[in-house]
Amino acid sequence: LDVSRIRTGRMSLQKENFDLAELVMEIFKKAEESGQMKIYTEGFSPLVGFWDKLRIDQVVSNIISNTERYAGNTPVHASLISKNGEALLMIRDEGPGIPA
Fold it and tell me: How far apart are CA 86 and CA 75, in angstroms?
């Protein structure tokens, strides 16, 4: 449904002012509490801006869910930085990867 809305230009974002680092850390904490994964973070200083909380939660939760599903119990490393006025969230696991 979301992809359909994006393609037709009907996706509307509900932006609000909040700390992106705080939201992402909450998502990580829930993932750690509900599963066997350990997420190591770096560079998570406050990053306040206008974001769509629901969409960010949806995307980050899906990434973490996929990581847990396909990387097993391997450590996950995440960093969040601000670069050139944009937020950059990097998530890396130590799973088997995708064969060539």
Answer: 26
Q: Could you write out the three-class secondary structure of the chain?
A: CHHHHHHCCCCCCCEEEEEHHHHHHHHHHHHHHHCCCCEEEECCCCCEEEEEHHHHHHHHHHHHHHHHHHHCCCCEEEEEEEECCEEEEEEEECCCCCCC
- Compute the distance between CA of residue 6 and CA of residue 30 in angstroms, rounded to an integer: 28
What Rg value do the Cα atoms of the chain yield, rounded? 15
- Between CA 50 and CA 40 the distance in angstroms is 26
pLDDT of 40-73, one tens digit each? Answer: 998 899 999 999 999 999 999 999 999 988 887 8
* pTM (whole model) above 0.90: no
